[in-house]
Amino acid sequence: MVGVRAVVDVHGAVAEGFEPVREAFVRNFEERGERGAAVALYRDGRKVVDLWAGAADGDEDGGGGAPWARDTAQVVRSATKGVAAACLLLLHQRGQLDLDAPVGTYWPEFKTAGKERVTFRDALAHRAGVPALDTPLTPAEAQDGISGPRALAAQAPFWAPGTDHGYHAQTYSWLIGELVQRASGGRPIGRYVAEEIARPLGLDLWIGLPTGEERRVGRIAAVRTPPPPAAAGLRARPKRNVTEAYDDPSSLTRRAFGAIDPLPDENDPGYHAAQLAASGGIATARSLARFYAALIGEVEGPGARLFAPATLTSARTPESEGPDRVLVVNTRFGLGFMLHGPAAPLLSPGSFGHPGRGGSLGFADPGEGVAFGYVTNGMQKNVTADPRAQALVRAVRECLR
Q1: Secondary structure string (H, E, C) spanning 44-81
Q2: What is the DSSP pairing of strand 378-379 with strand 221-222?
Q3: For the CA atoms of 377, 383, 385, 387, what is the dihedral angle to 10 degrees?
Q4: Cβ burial 171-184 (10 Å sphere, 16+ → b, else e)
Q5: Are the C-beta atoms of 143 and 105 separated by less than 8 Å?
Q6: Which of 18, 87, 151, 379 is deepest in the core (most CB within 10 A)?
Q7: Is residue 1 pLDDT above 70, yes or no?
Q8: Cβ proximity of 320 and 165 under 8 Å
Q9: The pTM is what?
Q10: What amino acid positions are annotated as catalytic residues?
Q11: What are the tens digits of pLDDT across the range 175-193?
Q12: What's the pLDDT tens digit per position in 333-376?
């Protein structure tokens, strides 16, 4: 691999033929408001891109804070959902749950108010009908591991479960987290990730950060989304109905994203330690990419392939397509993973993964043998398609031509 040192003080390496990814990464700092970030890429199980640059503190505008280091990890928001979904799929692969079994088989308290027939498949594909709560949780309640599952079990669905889909932005934490714990014989999802995914593969990836790793976590902050042409060809302004949905406090969109009220401090160590499967994961770009590489094949170094071929097929087979009751755009989901489409552009129609609101992105493309991870501390105003991530994806596509 060729060492990299650029004008914006980029560190790391790229393999021959993948220089366009480095160039796009540099332009993100120069043109797209990047503060601190990292990107990694695997091809056929081998790491071919591993870059990082900028400040570890997203509040710092390019200087004055500690630099982003090789081992800097970052909150990846909803990119966590792909990792959480993999836990349930691994349990299914090992014969510990049936995807078509009712959730209530493992979680009897959930069988209330019309949710008796919700299946694991529904839960993974955002078809369970409970993307919001009638009474939002406080940050302390959201993080205590008890109040969230209890509130979700009591919640009446917003539509007949299984008949439609809507993004479970926050409630995915308690829905998937509780199901992993019950189906795995009592292991909290953070422990399951550590024991079955992170440690075997040598990943710096957590749902529930150990206290000793807190020093490595960069500080996130809101940054301005750049106007065209720096927006990488994406729509700079959302459609009116989308804007109205986010502006209306009574809309299902606002209620779904506001299931925790007030919004938690994502830089708080307590938030980092909480096992929030929807949005609280912390990872390096290198580990996010390696995780996806292990879903689709063998990887260099420690660990083995995670998904059997049948599981991989199930993960990326469409389960939910069309108008999303929460995101108010057309979305496509497999079993817990977003699939390539206009709302969440990935590498190709065969790609599957998950973005994080404001920036981060992890995905794999089995046809190309590619696994991608991007993390940032500059949170831009987007949900599923970030200009910086998309610029990097376009560069990857260029490298594969």
Answers
A1: CCEEEEEEEEEECECCCCCCCCCECCCCCEEECECCHH
A2: parallel
A3: -40
A4: bbbbbbbbbbbbbb
A5: no
A6: 87
A7: no
A8: yes
A9: 0.95
A10: 78
A11: 999 999 999 999 999 999 9
A12: 999 999 999 989 999 999 999 999 999 999 999 999 999 999 99
Tokens 């299902």 sit on residue: 252
Coil, helix or strand for 37? strand
Based on the number of CB atoms within 10 Å of its own CB, is 276 exposed (0-12), middle (13-18) or buried (19 or more)? buried
Contact 376, 74 (CB under 8 A): yes
Q: What is the pLDDT of residue 227?
A: 74
Contacts of 171 (CB under 8 A, 6+ apart): 130, 131, 132, 133, 148, 152, 256, 259, 278
Question: Tokens in use for 344?
Answer: 């969440």
Rounded distance between C-alpha atoms, residue 26 and residue 32, angstroms: 10
282, HSE (Cβ side, Cα atoms, 13 Å):
31
Type and span of the H or E element at 41: strand 36-43
Compute the distance between CA of residue 82 and CA of residue 372 in angstroms, rounded to an integer: 13
Residues 6+ apart with CB under 8 A from 240: none
The proportion of the chain whose per-residue pLDDT surpasses 90, expressed as a percent, equals 88
**Residue 145: both structure tokens together:** 């591991």
Q: How far is CA 329 from CA 184, 236, 336, in A?
A: 35, 15, 18
- Contact between 356 and 346 under an 8 Å Cβ cutoff? The reply is no
DSSP state, residue 215: G
Residues ≥6 apart with Cβ < 8 Å to 352? 315, 316, 334, 337, 338, 339, 340, 346, 363, 364
Q: What is each CA distance from 377 to 50, 86, 297, 308, 380, in whole angstroms? A: 17, 25, 30, 34, 9
